[in-house]
Amino acid sequence: MNARTLAVAATAFACGAAIAAGARDGAWLAMLSALAGAAAGAAAGLWPVKAGTMALHLSDHPELMTRRREAIDHEIGILEAAQELQRGVFEVSAELVGCVEEGDARNRFTAAMRRYWSCNEADLLLWERGAWRSLGGPGTGGAVPRLDRPVLLPEENDGDLVLDLSPGVAGQAALVLRGAEAQPSLRGRNEADQRYVAEVLRGQLALSLRRVMLYTELQALARVDPVDPLTGVHRRWYGERRLEELVNAGEVVAVGMIDIDRFKTINDGHGHAAGDQVLAAVGRCLAAHLRTGDLACRWGGEEFLVVLPDASPHGAQMVASRLRSAVAALADLPCAVTVSVGVASVHQDEPATELVRRADQALYVAKHDGRNRVVLAEETGQGGVVRTTARLRRRTTDLPAP
Q1: Measuring CA to CA, how many Å separate 371 from each of 317, 338, 349, 390?
Q2: Three-state SS sequence of 373-387
Q3: Phi then psi for 95, rounded to 5 degrees?
Q4: How many other CB atoms are found less than 10 A from the CB of residue 289?
Q5: To pair with 19 at 20 to 30 A between CA atoms, which of 66, 93, 198, 240?
Q6: Any idea what DSSP says for residue 247?
Q7: Strand, coil or helix: what is 87?
Q8: CA distances (Å), origin 193, targets 84, 90, 113
Q9: Which of 256, 330, 351, 328 lies closest to 296 in space, CA to CA?
């Protein structure tokens, strides 16, 4: 494409701009655009223009340049205001990243909002069990918030600014700034601009509130310690949950039900302190001799359950035998200690409870046959097809060849 062709295209573009400008910004801008079109036409050689004609024309109409400069300054001001808003939102987001405590949330949220609205006091409210609960301390006692809209500006709500933060929780939540007034950064802006700022901040605060609630849930779980303090292995509820997850996911898994032989005799003959010493030693021994990925939990009293993912019946039996031998070799205890073990491998479409029941039956056989031994449930005549391939892998490998 040569210079003349480019100039013709520029002429067409400038003339179109002149028409649009005439409809939008008035005749003065249309004239300026038309002059640009004339210049482009001259460059294309479409009509002759004497040198310096454009400069003389603009110098005869300096008000055009002044008005255009004012319009450009106004547009720059709008862009700078938008940039300042984005910077403020980014700074708010950065400040809220470290907010994870319920007790700190209200103060942090209020401080973030005070960039744009001052207030006398604030409430961060969460709807729980049929009533509003105040996060971060007692509530102010102000009016119950209306959540019929994402944002209620002070002018719409008797002077209170309300942000609906329900997207950040499972139910309903709200931040209420009591007696809110726009800061200088928002004064002079129309209602639409103020609502836009409030809605942007609402999104950031809802995300932060979600992080706070997740942290609270994690703290609650941490308070329910999954580890038995005496034996050092997991508690029963944790072992049950993990085993159920594996079975329901279609994984290959085996379990071993372990019982300390003649434990009542140990308690009666040596005292309960000696019994606790034996329990602790057996728990440590089991944990030390399991494979990576295996799990041991205290099932109750002197019983333990070991969960063995990806273990075949023979492999599970070998692990159980190793555990039995390791316990029998324990030293520095008030008496010799042995365990009996019942092992079961999950069957196709078998629930976790049935798997544990079969292991318990195998343990009963081990006790009946003399203790200090391992019995495999599948060797006791218990029927069923042992699961040998994980469900996900079965679905993949059982597909017909293309």
Answers
A1: 16, 8, 31, 33
A2: CEEEHHHHCCCCCEC
A3: -70, -30
A4: 17
A5: 66
A6: H
A7: helix
A8: 13, 18, 15
A9: 256
Q: Is residue 392's pLDDT more than 90?
A: no
Helix (H) or strand (E) segment spanning residue 206: helix 191-223
15 with 37: CB under 8 angstroms?
A: yes
Q: Can you give the length of the chain in residues?
A: 402
CA distance to 191, 216, 305, per residue, from 222 (Å): 46, 10, 22
Q: Give 124's strand partners.
A: 175
DSSP 49-72: --TTHHHHHHHH-HHHHHHHHHHH
Q: Contact, 322 vs 332, CB < 8 A?
A: no
Classify 227 as helix, strand or coil. strand
Which one, of 345, 353, 401, lies nearest residue 375 by Cα?
A: 345
Which of helix, strand or coil describes residue 303?
Answer: strand
Residue type, 105: A
- Count Cβ atoms below 10 Å from residue 302 Cβ, excluding itself: 21
For the packed helices 352-368 and 236-248, what is the interaxial angle rounded to 10 degrees?
120
In this structure, what token pair is assigned to residue 273?
């302190």
For residue 380, name the pLDDT band (cuts at 50, 70, 90): low
Q: How far, in Å, CA of 35 to CA of 14, rounded?
A: 9
Q: Render 144-173 in DSSP notation, one character per residue.
A: PPP-SSSEE-GGGTTT-EEEE-GGGSSS-E
The amino acid at residue 372 is N
Beta bridge pairs of residue 162 = 152, 176
| pLDDT above 60 (res 396) | no
- Contact criterion met (CB below 8 Å) for 225 and 273: no
Q: At 371, which amino acid appears?
A: R
> Cα separation of 29 and 35, whole Å?
10
What type of residue sits at position 47? W
DSSP per-residue string spanning 339-375: EEEEEEEPBTT--HHHHHHHHHHHHHHHHHTTSS-EE
Of 104, 103, 109, 131, the C-alpha closest to 122 is 109
Q: Which two tokens stand for residue 169?
A: 């929780």
DSSP 3-state of 324: helix
Angle (CA) 239 260 227, round 5°: 30
The confidence band for 378, taking pLDDT boundaries of 50, 70 and 90, is confident
Q: pLDDT tens digits for 167-226?
A: 999 889 999 999 999 998 788 788 988 998 899 899 999 999 999 998 888 777 766 778
